[in-house]
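Example for tutorial group B:
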């Protein structure tokens, strides 16, 4: 079974809509700075930095310092605990959908 603590950290990080939006922007770009993430976001640079910190602690974001700038990029492998946990329920739902498919064929041949 997957460690509950790692799942909780990922879920907590993704629970915030601003963090999800940041992660989506990071996924859509190779690397990006806090200044670039702040532009057009409607969120302060300090708040963006705090959200990035939470995403980084969850293993969803990696950073690369270069001089005075820090470049951020998405780290999709950080979603692995969540994907593994959801896979457990995929078996559960897969069986039920198969039963539903059979039932629907019996009702409407």
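The residue assignment follows.
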């Amino acid at each position: 079974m997957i460690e509950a603590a790692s799942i909780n950290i990922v879920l907590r990080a993704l629970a915030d809509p601003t963090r999800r939006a940041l992660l989506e922007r990071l996924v859509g770009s190779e690397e990006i700075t806090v200044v670039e993430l702040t532009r057009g976001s409607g969120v302060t640079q300090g708040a963006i930095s705090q959200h990035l910190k939470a995403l980084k602690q969850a293993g969803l974001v990696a950073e690369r310092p270069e001089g005075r700038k820090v470049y951020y990029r998405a780290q999709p492998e950080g979603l692995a605990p969540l994907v593994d946990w959801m896979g457990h329920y995929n078996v559960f739902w897969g069986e039920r959908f198969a039963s539903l498919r059979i039932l629907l064929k019996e009702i409407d041949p």
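The longest helix spans residues 80-107. Compare this with the pattern of hydrophobic and polar residues in the output above.
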